[in-house]
User: What shape does this take?
Amino acid sequence: MRALITGITGQDGSYLAEHLLSLGYEVWGLVRGQANPRVSRLRRLLKDVQLVRGDLLDQTSLMSAVEKVQPDEVYNLGAISFVPMSWEQAELTAEVTGMGVLRMLEAVRRRPGTRFYQASSSEMFGQVRETPQNERTPFHPRSPYGVAKAYGHFLTQNYRESYGMHAVSGILFNHESPRRGAEFVTRKVTLGVARIKLGLASELRLGNLSARRDWGFAGDYVRAMHLMLQSPEPEDYVIGTGRTQSVRELVEAAFTAAGLSYEDHVVSDETLYRPAEVDLLCADPKKARVQLGWEPTVPFEELVAMMVEADIRLLTDGRDPEQDASWG
Ligand code: NAP
Ligand code: GDD
Assistant: This one.
């Protein structure tokens, strides 16, 4: 089996590539830019991945990539994925995170039989209509990112219905790891804790501490992506743990894991609040459990402790978290 992954240099791309390689796949990753520094870090981690150039903004490059790789499965993980950036660069987010899905589907449509996975997001539920959220819960996105993801989600469904493509969307809730980008709250917190623990900082400034998320481990979630494409019928699935914690609880768990007290260090800064917030996310992953046999294996507290430990090690070794953040 041959797989093509867009977004291979991101958190999920690296875990998915590792997983598919372990299953005996030939793995290709789409990379953009003439000198993308994350590619060399990916190379250090995954020597067996082959790379093909392309950009989600450039239809011709995607057609050429699919033509060159001739994949059995395509995983479309590439996106502008940081929600606050989607207000600052709303048009670019629409182009990459939204229209990029159209361009990939068009490239894949020309190769009948290729299975397609779209990285949809719980951010589409936004101001939630019910809790927990399942595959039938209506969307009310609260950011340009969420709106772009909803477009990609519906388009994937539409290509499945219009052209009979084996195209599925995984509606994934937040998933984290030591390879998470430093801009996301879990990693910002665990890096902040590591800096404070090592005497490199004394304060951690955060935004809204009351928001709640359903946080799981990225390594578990990429297994679900693969399982979805093996199912005989193309269907969409919600993937999450079914538990929800507040940012405050995340902070408390991270500081406790390092033997510190968060009240001594954390400052809530209103300038970091979002124009519109998603207050609560909590998955109902029953369909994935029953139909795919998928279960998360890393509980929240263990995930946070794993990330704190990895960041203390990273900083102790003198590595630069801005350079090495995503790659532990
Ligand atoms: P990530 O670490 O931010 O990675 C994003 C990837 O997209 C990077 O490899 C980036 O490549 C690539 N990319 C950006 N612009 C591109 C373009 N114009 N053309 C081609 N590739 C481009 O994201 P992640 O956490 O791994 O998430 C993977 C996917 O799942 C994303 O679509 C995200 O929106 C979605 N998702 C994530 C979560 C989560 O909790 N992690 C939950 C639900 C859905 P460069 O190295 O070139 O920048
Ligand atoms: N990033 C960040 N930084 N978030 C903060 C901070 C802070 O200083 N303080 C509080 N938060 C809150 C945010 O307001 C949000 O409610 C929550 O922490 C989580 O923020 P992020 O970690 O940035 O993730 P996200 O939920 O906005 O988006 C992630 O998950 C989505 C799935 O639900 C991203 O990975 C998206 O790409 C993904 O689709």
